[in-house]
Write a structure and sequence with these properties.
With 494 residues, this protein is of the alpha+beta class. 39% of the residues lie in helices and 19% in strands. A hairpin with a 6-residue loop joins β8 and β9.
Length: 494
């Protein structure tokens, strides 16, 4: 006899199934909401594509960006729906520093790196936000005062002119960024319009520009071949090894065949490195000779140079607080490639900031200070919310090595191939460089890096210039060194 199914039990099964499904859906929804609110909230809030966040940022008086007491980015009342208009009074001069803040297209530079502070949404301003809400005050962001020297920034722009390139200046004692200029530059005011289509059109034109004005050549973009300014690092590695001194000598031929190849290299002079069959390292640096450094690099080995590069900051992530693209020293080199890297060729790639950091550490007795662009963050009521202290990044060389390096670099300025960096009454050390790009006979990268010391002030600079065409002669000393000199003078005289 077959029993009939229990109608109540039959109904329970689909109900349980539906309940289970609903529970799974609820758990999934709860989990995704938790993930968004608790885990991904900060990332989503900071995403430059988040149009809602950007719109909200225009509803508050965005804090000013200040250099030497002058506002280089500020907000003024607007009579449209966005309430506040962002303005850049000295737009192109400070664009590599301020970056831009746009409607719908994100932000860059200090505008991006310090967005929470500028919009008043940083954790340090939490209680200020509550007080403002309770008292009915209009919301406002904090001001960001920078370490940039207006005199140094203007000197960098004037000296570089319309040439492609970049300039960085650092206070060797503190790591403060005193100048950061990139050319060609752009006017961030065209990106501050309150029209998304207009902003999209402007940024599209800038991105399509073959001169790449949006690229901050000082700290990012397509990195440069350093050429002979890299010899500073290689010499430092040699001295640090304990196997060499400035008096260590190498063969001094007119040409050298790279190991394992038929390729010949020459010194920039196309002659020997000074008179004599042998040449010491101090002379080789001051005259910027390739052959002695190729021989030195072959003896030192890849590991020693790579370790020294890492000690100076190569390969490390760095925010100043704007993100910096790491400089690189290649690995797994064959003997000829190692020789080429020893005078800054093959695949060594750097930012001007990295070159300035190397020089700054040498000028600072071997101590590398962490670069920083922010002097203070001030709340709307002028309370100091942040006052960054100088931070030691490392000690890439000993004080003894640093002293020997300064002697060699000062010889290069006084008697070598960096004479156009001389400043009467100022101790100046430096190194020029000319890097072949190896691409379609494109213009060389012309370099100067150096430091200036006067009384208790010390500044390090790095300059790179890409001329329209290569010029016969000592072009780095003629073109790049005077730019570095102008910036050093501006800092020491300010």
């Amino acid at each position: 006899m077959t029993s009939n199914p229990d109608p109540e039990q039959s109904m329970r099964r689909p109900i349980r199934r539906i309940s289970t499904l609903l529970l799974i859906m609820f758990v999934g929804l709860f989990g995704s909401s938790t993930m968004i609110q608790a885990v991904q909230a900060d990332a989503l809030h900071g995403d430059p594509r988040n149009t809602r966040t950007l719109r909200d940022s225009f509803a508050v008086e965005r804090g000013s960006i200040v250099v030497d007491g002058a506002q280089v980015a500020l907000s003024t009342p607007s009579d449209d729906e966005y309430e506040w208009q962002r303005e850049y009074p000295l737009g192109a001069l400070y664009a590599p520093v301020t970056g831009y803040n746009t409607l719908g297209q994100g932000n860059t530079g200090i505008e991006g790196a310090m967005n929470e502070e500028l919009t008043g949404t940083a954790n340090s301003q939490f209680f200020d936000q509550i007080v403002a809400t309770l008292t009915g005050q209009d919301p406002a962001g904090s001001s960001v005062e920078l370490t940039i020297s207006s005199a140094a920034q203007q000197a960098a722009a004037d000296a570089l002119g319309a040439r492609e390139g970049a300039v960085v200046a650092l206070d060797t004692d503190t790591g403060d960024v005193l100048a950061m200029y990139s050319s060609p530059t752009f006017d961030p005011n065209v990106l501050a319009q309150h029209s998304i289509p207009a902003v999209q059109e402007s940024i599209g034109q800038l991105e399509a520009d073959p001169e790449q004005p949006l690229q901050n050549r000082a700290i990012a973009g397509d990195l440069y071949f350093p050429g002979s300014v890299f010899k500073v690092l290689v010499l430092a590695a040699a001295l640090e090894s304990g196997r060499y001194t400035l008096d260590s000598e190498f063969d001094n031929p007119e040409t050298l065949t790279l190991t394992g190849t038929s390729t010949e290299i020459r010194n920039a002079s196309r002659t020997t490195c000074g008179p004599g069959e042998r040449v010491n390292l101090e002379t080789a640096l001051s005259l910027s000779c390739n052959i002695p450094f190729a021989l030195l690099g072959a003896e030192l080995g890849e590991d020693a140079i790579a370790e020294q590069a890492a000690a100076f900051g190569y390969g490390q992530d760095l925010d100043i607080p704007v993100p910096v693209t790491p400089s690189t020293y290649p690995t797994d080199l064959d003997p000829s490639q190692l020789q080429l890297t020893s005078f800054g060729q093959f695949d060594v790639r750097v930012t001007p900031l990295q070159i300035a950091m190397t020089t700054a550490a040498i000028a600072n007795d071997g101590t590398l200070m962490r670069p920083n662009m922010v002097d203070r963050v001030l709340a709307p009521n002028l309370d100091v919310l942040d006052d960054p202290e100088p931070t030691i990044m490392g000690n890439p060389v000993s004080s003894g090595t640093a002293a020997e390096m300064r002697a060699a670099m000062e010889l290069a300025v006084n008697e070598g191939l960096a004479t156009n960096a001389q400043i009467p009454g100022v101790t100046v050390g430096g190194k020029t460089g000319t890097a072949e790009t190896g691409e379609n006979n494109e213009p060389f990268n012309l370099w100067f890096t150096g430091y200036g010391e006067l009384d208790d002030r010390s500044v390090a600079v790095a300059v790179v210039v890409v001329p329209d065409e290569n010029i016969v002669g000592d072009t780095s000393n003629v073109i790049a060194a005077p730019i570095g000199r102008a910036v050093i003078e501006a800092v020491l005289n300010s």
